[in-house]
Amino acid sequence: MKSMTIQQEQTKKIKKGKGFSTRQFRFWAQLGSFAIIVWIGYEFVRFVSFVERGGQIGPAPTRPPGVEGFLPISGLISFRDWLMSGHVNLIHPASLIILLAAVITAWLFKKGFCSWVCPVGFISEMVGNIGDKLFKHRLKLPKWLDYPLRGLKYLLLAFFLYAVFYAMSPDQVREFVASPYNKVADIKMLKFFTEIDVFALWTIGGLFVLSIILRGFWCRYLCPYGGLLGLFSLAAPTKIRRDENLCINCTRCAKVCPSFIKVDKVITVVSDECSGCLDCVDVCPVDGALDLKVIGRKKRVSKKIWAYAFVVAFWGTLLAFKLLGPWQNNITTQEYIYHTERMNGAEYNHPGR
Ligand code: SF4
Ligand code: SF4
Is any atom of ligand 2 closer than 6 Å to the C-beta of 90? Predict the structure, then answer.
């Protein structure tokens, strides 16, 4: 019997059938997250219009605490306040819980928040798909421009960390937390979108166009939240590993990677840009050539288990806090009505101004 060639050996190992597709599962997870966020937005708009009418008409709608996911700076200041006081303040507790859930899951599952939960990441991907169709291949900036631009999100992150953990004194942190500005930060954030000015509109439009031309423009270059998660993700115990002996150098993994990582050239993916989307593992046609592995172990981690574990870890944490607290803030509807009537006053500007 003729001995098998290496190519034949590898062909034998080509995956049969599709099996569990993380790409499909991820799409549904993203769509589910997006639907939850749209629902939260709808409920919050109802709540704000109720308090703006002075609470006069109809029963009070419930304010959805999940809206605080859009207040990451408040969450960061609450984190420092928590370190100082030993307890979570109840002005915007959900902002802190969501921030911690994103950071802890980034440490365990890479930047899974960006590719499995974040609505901006989801929209960015959809917009990037338009770019793929228009340009037929993914455009990428040259290294001399790409590297410094990627540093921008870390500059923004450094600025926020400096301001919150160094420039603000403990008294200023406490003053900020209890300030009218912080109490109505969620309403101010909504007003930013409902009463958007021309400059902000042009900026968002510009980012939209740039995201068509350069996939993930906002996430790759400007998002400090993603930068923070990227740093924690470097310590993730699971890494994507390529087996050089099994790899047939088809380059599919590198072509599909939304973060432009040269997966086909490395043995282990170690990158702050890896969002843990698992698209590379999903498209690899050779069984065992590209897998998730715990550092120092040979046994692969099932992508299916990894995907379910991430979704359960992130949403399960939020659900646990929703049921057991702290989650709901302690600002009453009457207090919201009081603040909304005076929201244009000087005390509703940032305390540092
Ligand atoms: S390396 Fe793989 S998991 Fe990481 S971003 Fe690229 S495709 Fe996604
Ligand atoms: S997808 Fe990547 S890891 Fe898999 S065989 Fe092709 S080049 Fe190798």
Answer: no
